[in-house]
């Protein structure tokens, strides 16, 4: 446009322009092409210097302060400007753009800072501090909101505090952070909105009002008002209330960004527009509506844009233009614009706007339309968004808020739990103390507050569910236990009663017998009774006399002491209470009182005789009455004796006079003690008399009774007999009744005992369960917190990742043990899921639980579709819809599913459609009782039963950060254990289907039995719990319980039997377990290889088919496990390797043996060159070793010392034959007893020229393969293997096209589509058509449309093809190829066979006899020559870089082009062949056009001069230096026969290469193989997050190596030297080289210092640190190091080379050029050897005074006679070898690289050039 002053419009018409000057601006970081900058004038507008900046700022502040405060002293304004500039300079110096790209602070920020003061007019007072507070607060908003890290914000606080304190002596300005400056309500809708100052409580009230107001619109805001939300809302409100206020909110989900915008929109009465779709034309419609609302209707409009909107650069460009200019070009057509702006004429007049209506409209849009960009901080394209939309940085305010403070995180759980408890008081939730610890352990991985809140809410739900279930179960169990306890107690009671009844029966029977005996004996004993009566009467009289005598004796004894007792009692009763109180009040009473009271206490039986005890006794209520009424008979002999001793020892104390002197109350008490002692003594004395009296009394009473009885008996014998008869009758009746009751009780007892005995197991189990449930309730908070955290944070983790993190949680939370599966599910559910098709591995079980428990929509990574099939089976009772996003009926199915509560499964997810976002975020709209959701711009009813599942078969699916926060990603990628089980099951199903059916039947039966047992147990508990009254009398209940118990016992027996059968089956399964285990390892090894090339991916279903095929074809062979494994390996390798490029097959094979055949990890690391020894000076190695092997042997010695010891390299005689052998890998010394892989390591170290052969041998010997290449196959065989559901993916290389072979193979009609731009629709239409018709479809060039392949994959998933349909896909390798399509296809490689013979045969076969036979002999020979040249050029690519410097895409199209253009020459029958024309055609157009290197072009020319000559037409001429005879005719078959005489293996002479080129090829190819294997092992993408422990472990060896390399040097502490020119070019070169070397060393050291701090946890990595660290972890040299010096690709060698070269250059510094040049020079010791040669040429030019362009290089292997030369030493030569100073061709056994003698180079003046047209010979070497 600039060059031609014209451009093409949309109709491709050229439109010119005149008189227009195009002015553009760009940031300093923007890169433009030199082609563009060369045609424009470039001007650099630099930033103002300090002086100018101060003048500008003072001018700004003068106006601002005057308008805000009125007059203010000029000096203060200057001082304030200086303050602001000082702060600005410090911010720019500390917060660098190199740390974060948005730290782009410019004077624009400074002017914004100034102008923003105007908005604080209402809050400013005349005080100086008032203005300083505003400046301080605005600095926090202008600069602080941009800062990423908390430590950066603290630095800003420090800067502000330091500067304000130094210049204004203000130290209390930080208090301003406790207030909020927000728009005044009365001015919120005006264009110049002033701010008001609110405290936290006032602003919190305002925000809550905004939430309520927004909720009135039907959209509830479920937010927690915390300090973060208040701060964020205040910042957003302040920005959006200003004209042209835009903001970029960078954070994580849940921070409250969108909520803040919604609240502010409600408070500001603004129209909030949130575009759903980021694609055209939907976004344009939203944009038009926003612009129209702001510009035409004059409303404040908030346009909220989210991450998914920014996926297209076009939209970013539109937003950039909108923010910058207030308009978007071509958004409206002319008629729409005219109709809008015409209605603004009156409005423009009212506002006195100067300008046209379009400008007025644009101005209104700029002021009223506010753009808010919500971008997730983890968005990989964050800074690309900033780069493509500069207005976000320069015209908007960036608010960077990614996390809540710890205090908020600590408060959130309690707030949510308290809120839940208030709404549901019945189910009280107990908080867990573990939330904060869990968050701190996981925040680096997923610190989004939304996830944390989701975890708490899920915790509440799980807690309520589990607690309710436990309490319900507890109540049932407790009721059952209580009933059984009641029955047990009843049994005990019945037993006791039965025993009592039995005793009563025996007693009654005994009494009846006694009565009977008495009747018979009464009459007999009448006379005897009379005699006894007389004796008794006499005896009674005698005892009565004795009794009277004893009574008198006792009365006499008591008569003496009784008066004393009465007197003492009377005296005690007269004691006044005051006297006792007086005694009690004494602190230290006299001994008299103490002794008396001790006597009282001891007599009354009180042993504690301390003063406190005495006071307590005296303080007792009624103590006098207690003493007075004391019964002296209660006095024990011990107490009496103790008091007697006391009275004897302290007789004075008991003297009445002494006692009275001590206290009025003491004397009566002393008398009472004495009287009671005497009375006690008497009582003790008369006790024997009393006992004798009592005995006599008893005897007397007994005798009188007997006398009465005998008298009565004698008086009426008949009456006695009658009475006895009545008693006998009564006893007999009572005994009968008791016996009846006893029998009934025994019957009840038997029933009760039977019930209790039968339910004893249940009783014990229920009791244990009650204990377990009680313990479970105690542990419920910690278990629920772990379960909620697991579901929330670990759903997207691998099985191993989950295990590690869960173990860490369990350890840090001090939990005894926790099983996620057992806590949230039961074995019964596991069995059910397994029967529904769920894999029975731990990962699948966990995922199933997460799907069913989580409230977040699941996104299943399900390559095998097993998870989706299980989910369909699990919810088969519900309506299920399955759809893909590209389905035309997608929106319709979505709406119907939401409306009617269906289960919607969305498959083949590659990118989550923005249409689903409202559903994923639960953005409901409420209209009364209606619950609605906004889908596709319309509100539809939302059914609460609606369930949505997202699914993708792409294992490598990358979910955006914005989506990841609202879905729960679960990887159902098959695990090792899961695949083993699958293979085992499939094997049994194929090999022994009966056993598999039996296993399934058992599984189903076991599930049914467990379900029935569970129901029976519940029924048993229900029956017991619901029973009332005496359960033993409830016959129906007893019958039901017995029946239930019997059924339960039967089921338990059946379950036990089932378990035994299952164990038996498992034993039979073990026969196939080992091969299944090996198969699983083999699959994962193959799958891991796809990291190297996505096209090598293998599906699980495909592998299972291979596995079963292998077992089927193995039948009849010798059945051993090892032979089975070998056969399986052969089958899988053959299948996979035919889809692997030839150059990658050895890599693939080595990868497999490393994974399957137990190669030690240290050996594998050494093989890949990934072992870091940290050694600087390794031990000496044998002197006989070739120099080029020394480093290899040193590394082997350091990393594998045991292997090195076995080799005995110190004995050169043992290794002589090995070192010269052409097949050394087969001819190891006899003493080397090492493994096959150790042989590879040996050859790699000593004979790298045979490394490829050693690797191949290792593979063949280890695996039993016959060849690394698979057996030859053709497309017919592939077609027979294929099915209509499985696409055939043909991987081609440039220049090959299998289309013709497919066309020849096609049995019916077929269609062919060459893919490219615009062919996608045609391809899909052809796919539908051919699939239905059963035809074939060929899609070519898929590598050109990789972004469309996901759509193709989705269509294939929905396709229902005819059985004859076949889909052939042709592509070249492309890393962006769709993973799902690659994995699910049958893959083969289509590439030309290697070798000139095969190449020429393929060429002739592709042209065919129909073409060749028509040619005349001469054209036929020319055709052969062109084919021969073409084959040589192609096959020479085998040797890179020796053959060609790089890979050139010489294709069959090149040959076709040559032949077609040369056809005209041989058709005109000219006798002379125009070789020059053919030469020019090939050299300048066809082949030469692809060549970039001048030396490669020389090789092409040499070949063309060799073959494009008349000699080739002679019958004596033979191609390639062979002796085969070419036919004189042009017969196709004759040429084919002649070509078959060529050797199958190409000789180096065919290409003009040295005879030992094979050695160089082996060395180079083996290095390529190692590099590829290293890529597979260490392929890691640089991520924003890292694992510190892994980094420390991986980087420590590099840091140790660097530390040891620097020992003895001081490079890292040297001051960087100035790049001063020396006196000569050589000296200048040394100075520059030294500067670069030291700069490089210090750059590396700085990198390692930073990495060391990161590994120790004292620093947080930035993007640069992550890049460097990940490069080293992947054993790659960081790009930032290579930008300073490009050296070895291996970081170990790179570091060693840097130190070695720096040390060498340091030695040269300070030397004169003559001193430097006089000694032999080793160019390998310089960083830039080419610069040295250029410097030497410049120095020679100066000394010889010859212009540099007139100098020619002169070199010699012999010392020249003149002295003006330099000597180059340590040179190496490839392709030849020196004998002395003579260069000779290499022999086949020569080393690929050999030492060269010193080379002497100099310069000489150019001679006059001779013009010649003759060819110049050029060596092919």
TrEMBL record:
Cell compartment(s), UniProt: Cytoplasm, Cytoskeleton
Domain spans labelled Dynein heavy chain region D6 P-loop: 1285-1389
Dynein heavy chain ATP-binding dynein motor region domain ranges (all copies): 832-1051
Residue ranges that the Swiss-Prot or TrEMBL entry lists as coiled coil: 484-557, 686-783, 992-1019
Annotated Pfam families: AAA_8 (PF12780), AAA_9 (PF12781), AAA_lid_11 (PF18198), DYN_lid (PF22597), Dynein_C (PF18199), Dynein_heavy (PF03028), MT (PF12777)
Keyword Coiled coil part of the UniProt annotation: yes
Segments forming domain Dynein 2 heavy chain 1 cytoplasmic ATPase lid: 60-153
InterPro entries in the record: AAA_9, AAA_lid_11, AAA_lid_11_sf, DHC, DYNC2H1-like_lid, Dynein_C, Dynein_C_barrel, Dynein_HC_stalk
Domain Dynein heavy chain AAA module D4: 222-440
GO cellular component: dynein complex; microtubule
Record carries keyword Cytoplasm: yes
Record-given protein name: Cytoplasmic dynein 2 heavy chain 1-like Protein
GN (gene name): AUGUSTUS-3.0.2_32813
């Amino acid at each position: 446009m600039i060059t031609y002053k014209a451009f093409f419009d949309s109709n491709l018409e050229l439109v010119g322009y005149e008189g227009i000057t195009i002015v553009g601006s760009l940031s300093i970081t923007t890169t433009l092409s030199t082609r563009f900058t060369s045609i424009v004038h470039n001007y650099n507008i630099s930033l103002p210097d300090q002086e100018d900046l101060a003048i500008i700022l003072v001018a700004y502040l003068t106006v601002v302060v005057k308008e805000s405060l009125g007059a203010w002293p000029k000096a203060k304004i200057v001082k304030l400007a200086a303050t602001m500039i000082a702060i600005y300079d410090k911010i720019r110096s500390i917060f660098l753009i190199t740390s974060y790209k948005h730290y782009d602070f410019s004077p624009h920020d400074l002017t914004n800072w100034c102008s923003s003061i105007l908005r604080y007019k209402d809050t400013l007072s005349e005080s100086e501090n008032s203005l300083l507070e505003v400046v301080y607060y605005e600095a926090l908003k202008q600069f602080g909101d941009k800062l990423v890290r908390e430590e950066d914000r603290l630095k800003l606080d420090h800067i502000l505090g330091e500067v304000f304190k130094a210049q204004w002596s203000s130290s209390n300005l930080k208090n301003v952070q406790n207030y909020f400056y927000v728009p005044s309500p009365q001015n919120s809708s005006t264009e110049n909105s002033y701010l008001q100052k609110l405290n936290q409580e006032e602003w919190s009230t305002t925000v809550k009002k905004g939430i309520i107001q927004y909720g009135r619109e039907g959209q509830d805001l479920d937010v927690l008002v915390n300090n973060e939300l208040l701060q964020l809302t205040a910042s957003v409100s302040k920005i959006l209330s200003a004209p042209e206020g835009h903001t970029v909110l960078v954070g994580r989900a849940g921070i409250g960004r969108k909520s803040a915008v919604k609240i502010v929109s409600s408070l500001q009465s603004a129209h909030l527009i949130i575009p759903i779709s980021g694609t055209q034309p939907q976004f344009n419609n939203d944009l038009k509506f926003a612009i129209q609302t702001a510009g035409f209707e004059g409303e404040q409009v908030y346009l909220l844009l989210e991450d998914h909107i920014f996926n297209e650069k076009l939209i970013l460009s539109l937003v950039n233009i909108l923010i910058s200019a207030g308009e978007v070009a071509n958004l409206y057509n002319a008629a729409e614009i005219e109709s809008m702006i015409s209605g603004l004429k009156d409005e423009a007049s009212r506002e006195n706007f100067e300008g046209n209506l379009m400008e007025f409209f644009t101005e209104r849009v700029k002021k009223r339309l506010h753009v808010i960009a919500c971008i997730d901080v983890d968005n990989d394209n964050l800074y690309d968004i900033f780069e493509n939309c500069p207005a976000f940085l320069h015209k908007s305010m960036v608010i960077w808020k990614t996390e809540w403070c710890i205090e908020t995180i600590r408060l959130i759980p309690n707030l949510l739990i308290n809120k839940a408890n208030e709404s549901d008081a019945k189910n009280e939730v107990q908080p867990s103390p573990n939330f904060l610890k869990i968050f701190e352990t996981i925040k680096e991985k997923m610190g989004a507050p939304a996830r944390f809140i989701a975890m708490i809410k899920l915790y509440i739900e799980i807690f309520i569910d589990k607690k309710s279930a436990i309490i319900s179960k507890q109540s049932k169990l407790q009721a059952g236990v209580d009933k059984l306890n009641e029955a047990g107690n009843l049994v005990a009671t019945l037993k006791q009663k039965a025993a009592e009844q039995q005793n009563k029966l025996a007693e009654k029977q005994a009494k009846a017998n006694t009565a009977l005996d008495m009747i018979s004996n009464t009459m007999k004993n009448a006379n005897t009774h009379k005699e006894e009566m007389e004796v008794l009467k006499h005896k009674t009289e005698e005892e009565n006399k004795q009794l009277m005598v004893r009574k008198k004796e006792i009365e006499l004894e008591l008569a003496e002491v009784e008066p004393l007792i009465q007197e003492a009692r009377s005296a005690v009763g007269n004691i006044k209470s005051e006297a006792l109180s007086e005694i009690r009040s004494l602190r230290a009473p006299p001994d008299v009182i103490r002794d008396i009271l001790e006597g009282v206490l001891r007599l009354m039986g009180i042993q504690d005789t301390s003063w406190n005890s005495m006071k307590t006794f005296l303080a007792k209520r009624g103590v006098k009455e207690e003493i007075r009424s004391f019964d002296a008979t209660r006095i024990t002999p011990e107490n009496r004796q103790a008091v007697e001793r006391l009275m004897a020892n302290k007789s004075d104390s008991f003297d009445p006079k002494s006692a009275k002197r001590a206290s009025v109350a003491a004397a009566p008490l002393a008398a009472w003690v004495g009287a009671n002692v005497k009375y006690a003594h008497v009582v003790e004395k008369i006790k024997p008399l009393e006992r004798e009296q009592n005995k006599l009394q008893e005897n007397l009473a007994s005798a009188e009774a007997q006398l009465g009885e005998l008298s009565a008996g004698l008086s009426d014998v008949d009456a006695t007999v009658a009475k006895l008869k009545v008693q006998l009758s009564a006893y007999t009746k009572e005994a009968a009744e008791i016996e009846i009751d006893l029998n009934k009780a025994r019957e009840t007892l038997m029933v009760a005992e039977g019930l209790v005995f039968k339910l004893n197991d249940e009783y014990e189990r229920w009791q244990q369960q009650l204990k377990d449930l009680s313990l479970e309730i105690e542990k419920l908070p910690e278990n629920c917190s772990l379960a909620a955290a697991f579901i929330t944070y670990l759903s997207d983790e691998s099985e191993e990742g989950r295990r590690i993190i869960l173990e860490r949680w369990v350890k840090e939370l001090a939990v005894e043990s926790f099983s996620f599966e057992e806590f949230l599910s039961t074995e019964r559910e596991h069995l059910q899921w397994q029967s529904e098709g769920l894999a029975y591995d731990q990962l699948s079980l966990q995922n199933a639980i997460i799907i069913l428990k989580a409230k977040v929509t699941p996104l299943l990574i399900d390559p095998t579709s097993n998870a989706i099939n299980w989910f369909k089976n699990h919810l088969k009772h519900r309506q299920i819809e399955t759809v893909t996003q590209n389905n035309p009926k997608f929106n319709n199915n979505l709406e119907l599913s939401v409306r009617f509560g269906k289960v919607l499964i969305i498959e083949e997810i590659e990118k989550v459609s923005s249409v689903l976002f409202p559903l994923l975020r639960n953005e409901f709209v409420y209209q009364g009782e209606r619950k609605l959701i906004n889908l596709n711009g319309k509100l539809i009813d939302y059914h609460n039963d609606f369930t949505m599942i997202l699914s993708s078969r792409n294992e490598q699916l990358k979910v955006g950060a914005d989506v990841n926060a609202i879905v729960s990603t679960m990887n159902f990628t098959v695990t090792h254990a899961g695949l083993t089980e699958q293979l085992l099951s499939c094997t049994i199903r194929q090999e022994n289907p009966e056993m598999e059916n039996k296993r399934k039947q058992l599984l189903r039966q076991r599930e049914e039995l467990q379900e029935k047992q569970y129901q029976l147990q519940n029924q048993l508990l229900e029956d017991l719990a619901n029973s009332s009254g005496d359960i033993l009398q409830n016959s129906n209940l007893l019958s039901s319980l017995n029946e239930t118990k019997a059924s339960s016992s039967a089921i338990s027996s059946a379950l036990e039997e089932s378990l035994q059968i299952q164990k038996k089956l498992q034993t039979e399964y073990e026969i196939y377990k080992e091969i299944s285990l090996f198969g699983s390892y083999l699959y994962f090894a193959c799958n891991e290889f796809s990291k190297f090339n996505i096209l090598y991916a293998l599906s699980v279903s495909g592998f299972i088919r291979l596995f079963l095929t292998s077992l089927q074809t193995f039948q009849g062979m010798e059945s051993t496990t090892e032979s089975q494994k070998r056969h399986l390996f052969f089958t899988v390798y053959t299948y996979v390797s035919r889809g692997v490029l030839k150059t990658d097959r050895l890599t693939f094979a080595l990868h497999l043996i490393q994974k399957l055949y137990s190669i030690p990890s240290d050996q594998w690391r050494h093989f890949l060159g990934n072992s870091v020894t940290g050694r600087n000076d390794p031990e000496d190695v044998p002197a006989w070793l070739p120099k080029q092997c020394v480093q290899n042997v040193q590394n082997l010695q350091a990393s594998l010392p045991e292997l090195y010891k076995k080799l005995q390299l110190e004995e050169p005689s043992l290794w002589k034959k090995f070192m010269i052998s052409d097949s050394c890998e087969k001819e190891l010394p006899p003493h080397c007893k090492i493994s096959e892989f150790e042989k590879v390591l040996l050859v790699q170290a000593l004979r790298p020229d045979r490394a490829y052969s050693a690797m191949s041998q290792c593979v063949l010997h280890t695996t039993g393969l016959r060849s690394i290449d698979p057996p030859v196959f053709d497309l017919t065989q592939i077609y027979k293997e294929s099915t209509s559901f499985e696409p055939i993916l043909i991987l081609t290389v440039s220049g090959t096209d299998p289309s013709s072979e497919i066309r020849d193979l096609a049995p019916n009609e077929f269609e062919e589509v060459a893919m490219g731009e615009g062919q996608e629709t045609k391809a899909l239409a052809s796919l539908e058509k051919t699939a239905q018709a059963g035809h074939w479809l060929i899609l070519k060039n898929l590598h050109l449309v990789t972004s469309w392949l996901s759509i193709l994959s989705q269509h294939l998933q929905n396709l229902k093809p005819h059985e004859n349909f076949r889909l052939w896909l042709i592509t070249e390798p492309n890393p962006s190829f769709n993973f799902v399509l690659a994995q699910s296809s049958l893959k083969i490689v289509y590439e030309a066979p290697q070798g000139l013979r095969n190449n020429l045969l393929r060429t002739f076969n592709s042209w065919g006899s129909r073409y060749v036979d028509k040619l005349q002999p001469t054209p036929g020979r020319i055709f052969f020559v062109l084919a021969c040249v073409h084959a040589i050029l192609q096959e020479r690519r085998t040797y890179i870089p020796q053959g060609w410097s790089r890979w050139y895409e010489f294709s069959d199209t090149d040959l076709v082009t040559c032949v077609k253009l040369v056809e005209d020459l041989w058709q005109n029958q000219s006798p002379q062949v125009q070789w020059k024309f053919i030469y020019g055609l090939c050299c300048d157009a066809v082949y030469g056009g692809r060549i970039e290197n001048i030396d490669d072009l020389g090789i092409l020319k040499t070949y063309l001069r060799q073959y494009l000559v008349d000699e080739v037409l002679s019958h004596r001429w033979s191609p390639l230096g062979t002796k085969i005879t070419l036919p004189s005719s042009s017969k196709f078959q004759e040429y084919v026969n002649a070509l078959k005489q060529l050797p199958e293996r190409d000789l180096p002479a065919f290409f003009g290469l040295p005879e030992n080129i094979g050695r160089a090829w082996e060395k180079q190819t083996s290095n390529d193989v190692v590099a590829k294997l290293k890529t597979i092992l260490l392929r890691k993408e640089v991520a924003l997050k890292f694992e510190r422990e892994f980094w420390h472990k991986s980087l420590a060896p590099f840091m140790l190596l660097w530390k040891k390399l620097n020992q003895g040097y001081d490079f890292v502490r040297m001051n960087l030297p100035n790049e001063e020119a020396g006196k000569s070019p050589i000296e200048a070169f040394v100075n520059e080289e030294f500067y670069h070397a030291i700069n490089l060393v210090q750059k590396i050291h700085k990198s390692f210092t930073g990495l060391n701090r990161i590994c120790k946890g004292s620093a947080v990595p930035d993007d640069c640190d992550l890049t460097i660290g990940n490069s080293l972890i992947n054993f790659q040299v960081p790009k930032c190091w290579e930008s300073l010096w490009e050296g070895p690709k291996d970081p170990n060698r790179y570091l060693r080379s840097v130190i070695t070269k720096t040390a060498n250059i340091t030695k040269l510094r300070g030397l004169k050029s003559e001193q430097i040049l006089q000694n032999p020079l080793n160019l390998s010791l310089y960083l830039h050897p080419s610069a040295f040669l250029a410097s030497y040429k410049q120095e020679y030019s100066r000394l010889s005074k010859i212009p540099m362009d007139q100098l020619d290089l002169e070199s010699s292997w012999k010392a020249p006679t003149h002295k003006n030369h330099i000597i180059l030493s340590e040179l190496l030569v490839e392709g030849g070898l020196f004998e002395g100073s003579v260069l000779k061709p290499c022999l086949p056994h020569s080393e690929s690289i050999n030492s060269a003698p010193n080379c002497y180079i100099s310069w000489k003046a150019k001679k006059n050039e001779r013009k010649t047209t003759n060819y110049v010979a050029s060596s092919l070497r």
